[in-house]
Amino acid sequence: MAKDLGKWRRRLDRERTFPPETLAKIDQSLDRLSWAIYALNSFTLLSFPKAQVLSRPDRPKPAQNHDATLQSDWMPYPKHGNIRMSFHAECHFGAFLSLAESACQGEAVFSEQGDSWSAGSMTRFLHRYIELQQWPERLPDCMKLSTITLPHIAALHAMHQWVIIVMSKQAAAASAGQARRPEIATTASSDDQGHWRSIAISSAITIGNLMEAQCVNWGMDHFPVIILQPVTLALFTLLEDLGPSENRSAFISLCITLRAATRRFRAAHGVLGRVHSTAKQNRVTLPQETERLFHIRNIEAQSEVVSETDDIGIDYLLEKWVDLEF
Predict the structure, then answer these.
(1) Residues 165-218 pLDDT 10s
(2) Residue 314 and residue 268 in contact, taking contact as beta carbons nearer than 8 Å
(3) How far apart are CA 96 and CA 118, in angstroms?
(4) What are the CA-CA distances from residue 323 to residues 173, 174, 190, 224 (Å)?
(5) For residue 204, which of 170, 240, 165 has the smallest C-alpha distance?
(6) Is 236 inside any structural domain?
(7) HSE (side-chain half, CA atoms, 13 Å) at 105
(8) What is the DSSP letter of 59?
(9) Is residue 153 assigned to a domain?
(10) Beta carbons of 38 and 99 less than 8 angstroms apart
């Protein structure tokens, strides 16, 4: 698509159909489109079993200027009274792109390696990992978490924690000499197992806290579909250790979020079923507070309220992880 758009743009230069000011606006739109496609595809590839990395667009990256960004009002839908909050759409787009770049740079290390890593490879990965961790510090103030964070900003931070989970699980697999066979509901055994497991669980708890705050502030209907990936991975990550109360609370919040998501996204039904079956397979005792939720889901499955179409998309969400059966 990007190549086709490039050919079309060069044809405009040859035909000289539009004045320079119109061509400048077209160029701005093509810049945004090229980088948006790059970011979306990079996040999609992060879920694939084989590490793949896209080349950066050859078009200029859209410039970001927080102080010069036009401010618009955001209102929840359906409306909650007369609530209006300021929102910088350009800053949000820039934060989305920068997160995609950071994720892509980390994935590039994995795409270059086999199952066994050299010390140099791990050093390069750790450098990229530290850059990823510091992503929130580089954001403008309007994109940072606050007492009442807008849903689309919370989704960005949840995606950040999701990328951390992916990279920590991959690093654990690399330390164990199985970089191309990462696990999500367990952590590969190695000298660094405890370190990477702690990081992944901490990120999963953060995603749970973000979703709980979302529920309190806006209700569970105000979240984009892209939040489904962080919530899904966080649930499977927490299955490894539901002992601490903080872990259980996050797991409960995430289950509630996923249950609410079934009203809009059918794949959420399938994820709930897979979480339940994986817990049984791994002999994990789930919190009592989730028993009714999974019981209702099982009844729906038996009464065909849940259908085979609810598993569509599950392989995309989870096929990267070798410890989940399909």
Answers:
(1) 999 998 888 888 887 788 899 888 877 888 999 999 999 999 999 999 988 888
(2) no
(3) 32
(4) 12, 15, 16, 28
(5) 165
(6) yes
(7) 17
(8) S
(9) yes
(10) no
Contacts of 164 by beta carbon, 8 Å cutoff, 6+ apart: 132, 133, 199, 200, 203
Domain hosting 254: range is 120-326
Residue 107 maps to a domain? no
DSSP code at position 73: E
Helix (H, G, I), strand (E, B) or coil at 86: strand
Give which of 180, 192, 59 is closest to 126, Cα–Cα: 192
Q: How many CB atoms lie within 10 A of CB 254?
A: 28
Q: Considering the domain boundaries, does residue 15 fall inside one?
A: no
Q: Residue 238 half-sphere exposure, CB side, CA atoms within 13 Å?
A: 33
DSSP, res 121? H
pLDDT digits (tens, 9 = 90+) for 119-152: 788 888 889 999 999 999 999 988 999 888 888 8
* Residue 111: how many other CB atoms lie within 10 Å: 12
Tally of structural domains, the chain: 1
Neighbour-count burial for 25-58, b at 16+ CB within 10 Å, e otherwise:
eeeeebbbebbbebbeebbebbbeeebbbbeebe
pTM of the model: 0.88
The separation between the first and the last C-alpha atoms of the chain, rounded to the nearest angstrom, is: 32
Long-range CB contacts for residues 303-309, cutoff 8 Å, separation at least 24: 306/269, 306/270, 306/273, 309/266
What is the DSSP secondary structure assignment for residue 26, as one 8-state letter? H
Is 186 within 8 Å of 282 (Cβ atoms)? yes
* Dihedral over Cα of 309, 311, 317, 319: its sign: negative
The partner residues of 73 in beta bridges, in order of sequence, read: 86
Cβ–Cβ under 8 Å, residues 55 and 42: no
What stretches of 219-266 show up as alpha helix (H) in DSSP?
Answer: 228-238, 245-261
Give the Cα-Cα-Cα angle 298, 304, 308 (nearest 5 degrees). 95
